[in-house]
Specification:
With 144 residues, the protein is mainly alpha-helical. Helices cover 58% and strands 0% of the residues. It contains eight helices and no strands. Helix 2 packs parallel to helix 5. The mean pLDDT is 92.
């Protein structure tokens, strides 16, 4: 990781994706390790769902090089929604309205995040799951 600069110091989220992309672009390989176990779960409220995806969209906007060089997740959201609805149809159809609402909030949050440069600075902490990121001024080195 040190060879590619380690984790970025100031980023709204996705520091692992940035490091992974830099490693791949530097000739390293990333392997799927089936024996590795990770439990990763969130129980987001509807508002938190929107805020998380605002951050994802802002990350993609601010780190546009990553999508250009590694690839865009085109169509993955729609594939996920279809899969989720198919699963809920079999298991618990009463959860479909909430799943659709969550998907709509994710999409809205993502689109807002992608356009974060156009938003007034005072709104960004309100839309983010990481408000401190937006409240901390950039240093002169970070401004470039």
């Amino acid at each position: 990781m040190e060879a590619v600069g380690g984790f970025p110091r100031r980023i709204v989220m996705g520091e692992d994706a940035v490091v992974g992309a830099k490693l791949l672009l530097s000739g390293w390989k990333i392997a799927y390790q089936a024996e590795a176990w990770v439990y990763h779960s969130h129980a987001y409220t509807l508002a938190q769902e929107l805020r998380r995806y605002f951050d994802v969209g802002a990350f993609h906007a601010q780190e546009a090089w990553l999508l250009q060089r590694i690839g865009k997740p085109e169509g993955e959201g729609l594939r996920y929604v279809r899969s989720e609805i198919a699963y809920l149809l079999r298991r618990n159809p009463l959860l479909i309205p909430e799943a659709l609402l969550r998907s709509a909030l994710r999409y809205a949050g993502y689109r807002l995040g992608r356009a974060e440069a156009l938003l007034p600075p005072r709104f960004k902490p309100l839309l983010s799951l990481n408000p401190a990121y937006w409240r901390t001024p950039l240093t002169s080195a970070e401004k470039g």
